[in-house]
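Check these lines:
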Amino acid sequence: MGGCVRDTLLGRSPHDYDVATSALPEEVERCFNRTVPTGIKHGTVTVIIRSRAVEVTTYRREGAYSDHRRPDSVSYTPSLAEDLSRRDFTINAMAMDVHGDVTDLFGGREDLSLGLIRCVGEPGRRFEEDALRMLRAVRFAARLGFTIEGRTLAAIRERSGGCALLSAERVGAEVRGILASPRPDMVWLLPELHLLDGYMRPGTRSHRSLAALPIYARTAHWCHALERGGYIGSTEGFLRALRMDNHTIRTASAAAHMLATGSRDYKRLLRDYGREAVLAAYPHSRRLRSILRSGECYTLAALAISGGDLAALGYSGRELGRALNRALDHVIDHPGDNNRAALLQLITGGKYDERT
């Protein structure tokens, strides 16, 4: 069912398989030795076969969506057609039997060949039921290289306000999926279609192509462009509102700050922000890569002297910290001086390199 059929028809390896059946959940449980009622409320039983988990869901019809995200109730139906009719997009509304025969009642195969993301039935109704489908439309288009069909796109524009009801975690997950896709620049459809109005204000689009960047750098560069365009006040605040993980927030915020300052003092940037953040800001810099390969010192840990060396000379507390940072600052500019004798002379003698 759904995505695994779509990917199979596209010649891609499905990530997982969703099985649907007219059998009721209790009948599914009787058919197999090992089952887990993971989504029994919605008719889903996980079947364990040879240590592999397969979700099996009973054909169903859905009630109203009062929260614009999940149906208030579900009921079972013996009809595959009725089950498929509740799906979001035509390319996800196909089923394949054990013989490889495809049931396609809504033109999914044709839309695959045309490269279209089209809603099943009336687009406005699909988005009224579940607002997340609007973000999923953009993600599928970005992932598959497809175009969003005209009526579907128009309905997204009309219903975009419904995204304000979605959880930040769900929205953030869709943003991450778009940025990690083969067409990350489609992330700009989100502000253009007002799908992120709960997280940003109107702005002016100003950006370089994200597609040329490695995945780990795209969030920072997009956020930097959002800052420049006035869409967001800060990368940290924006990503935190989307409930991104702390590592992403720290790395992207630091990288966006570097891009805003324009600094290319790579060793000091590495000292202050760390390897991952600097690479996220300047992923294509040959000079940065050269520094990283060279083993040149840019951290206190790589200095040829330690706090213990200075403590033995009577340094302590803030005085010791200032001395180490002074030594590091010197070594960043003079890599050849990163040896114990030179640095001790620098610290105890007041200055070391007469050439400067």
Observations:
- The two ends are 71 Å apart (CA to CA).
- The first helix runs from residue 3 to 9.
